[in-house]
Amino acid sequence: MFWNALAAGALLGQSVSAQNMLRFACSQLTIERADPLVTPGQAPAPHTHQIIGGNSFNLTMEPGVYDPPAKSTCTTCTYSEDFSNYWTASLYFRSPENGTFQRVPQFANVGLQQDGGMTVYYMPYSAVNNKMTAFKPGFRMIAGDPMSKKNNRVSICHRCLGNGEGFAPCDAKDTGELPNKYCPKGIRATIIFPSCWDGKNLDSPDHKSHVAYSNSGGLGSPKCPSTHPVSIPQVMYEIMWDTGRYKNDAWYGNGKQPFVYSFGDATGYGQHGDYLFGWKDDSLQKAMDALPTGRCANANCSVLKIQSAKDSMACKKKQQVVEDVGKDGSWIKELPGGAAVTYA
Ligand SMILES: *[C@@H]1O[C@H](CO)[C@@H](O)[C@H](O)[C@H]1NC(C)=O
Ligand SMILES: *[C@@H]1O[C@H](CO)[C@@H](O)[C@H](O)[C@H]1NC(C)=O
Ligand SMILES: *[C@@H]1O[C@H](CO)[C@@H](O)[C@H](O)[C@H]1NC(C)=O
Question: Superkingdom of the source (predicted)?
Fold first, then answer.
């Protein structure tokens, strides 16, 4: 949950210097079937997403045309110049007794104050000589793949909380699958994005090929491939699911567990995250440049503007695709969009 680059570097057996990173909360903006990256303009999109960041989030956000910092009037993130949008699938509990679904509530990560949403990281893993190039306006990318039937634990992983902390995310104590045991302290889902860029394209048809991992997926090493030579901040999401309330021995074990992602995946290999850059002006570059100086770390970066937790939680956006996606503990008969429950 809380760890630092030095500890993670040591665990990876790399010589990562003791550098700071950004680690901050973004509360829920909206939960709806919208996806401006994969299905722009489509209402409804195939499955439910939970979305955080700038309130200019929209069904269509054309790269280089739609400018989130200019269009947003608030953000759910700690850093008030960050109007990016970050989104992932929602998680549902499917009652083994009657097959109805309840959207799993969330809780705040260690040391942070937030209303749902995620913890967002910008990390310096692939930085060479402490230099990283921040994303350009219009940049977007996806990590993970909803169609995946393969374990990719180093980038997409789950932690059954309460097994000891302080080790790197997506290490061997985590699982690619949703844990098939009861997790009284919750399940943390982690999504790790690539840390290298081709230096040219803001996007690509699969929203992936313009970026690359430096280290066969997962946390980076200070070395980008020659096809993608530019070191970018390594973005990571953490989502805290409050699974402790779903306690019943009969629901877990022997390969069983009662949770399913909004697109029907009950194994968890298809968990994925979408990123759409929207920091104001050169604020992210300034923060990345300040990481090695010690003046910028976690949720207290002195070169960025910080808003109160109250203000970040007050930023909300009404659903544009109006429907019940499972609000405040309600039970719904099927996953929004009607995805069938599948296993890898
Ligand atoms: C979002 O898209 C709709 C429909 O295209 C448009 O009317 C609206 O102005 C957009 N919102 C913002 C904040 O630009
Ligand atoms: C379905 O089962 C869950 C427990 O698994 C229960 O809380 C809920 O009330 C049930 N709903 C109906 C309609 O029976
Ligand atoms: C944030 O950093 C400043 C110095 O840059 C320090 O004075 C302040 O105590 C820090 N706040 C927190 C909450 O760590």
Answer: Eukaryota
Show the tokens assigned to 116.
Answer: 């749902």
Residue 204 neighbours by CB distance under 10 Å: 15
**Ligand 1 site-directed mutation target among 30, 55, 57, 58, most atoms within 8 Å of CB:** 58
Residue 25: pLDDT above 90?
A: yes
Residue 94 lies in a domain: yes
Q: Domain for residue 77, yes or no? A: yes
> Could you give the number of structural domains in the chain?
1
Dist. CA 112 → ligand 3 center (Å): 15
Please name the helix (run of DSSP H) or strand (run of DSSP E) that holds residue 36, with its range, or none: none
Q: Are 124 and 186 in contact (CB under 8 A)?
A: no
Report the pocket of ligand 2 as residue ranges, CB < 6 Å: 95, 97-98, 100, 331
Ligand minimally distant from the alpha carbon of residue 96:
2
Relative to the CA of 93, which ligand 2 atom is closest?
5
Asked if 109 contacts 237 with a C-beta cutoff of 8 angstroms, the reply is: no
- Please give the mean pLDDT across all residues of the chain: 93
Instruction: Give the pLDDT score at 6.
Output: 39
Q: Which domain holds residue 173?
A: 17-314
User: The whole model's pTM is what?
Assistant: 0.94
277-323 confidence digits (pLDDT tens): 999 999 999 999 999 999 999 999 999 999 999 999 999 999 999 99
| Beta carbons of 335 and 42 less than 8 angstroms apart | no
Cis bond upstream, residue 44 (ω within 30):
yes
Q: Residue 341 domain-assigned?
A: no
Enumerate long-range contacts of 126-130, CB under 8 Å, 24 or more apart: 126/195, 126/196, 126/214, 126/220, 126/221, 126/222, 126/223, 126/224, 126/231, 126/232, 126/234, 127/19, 127/222, 127/231, 128/222, 128/223, 128/224, 128/231, 130/17, 130/19, 130/291, 130/292
Helix (H) or strand (E) holding 126: none
Nearest by Cα to 88 from 72, 106, 102: 106
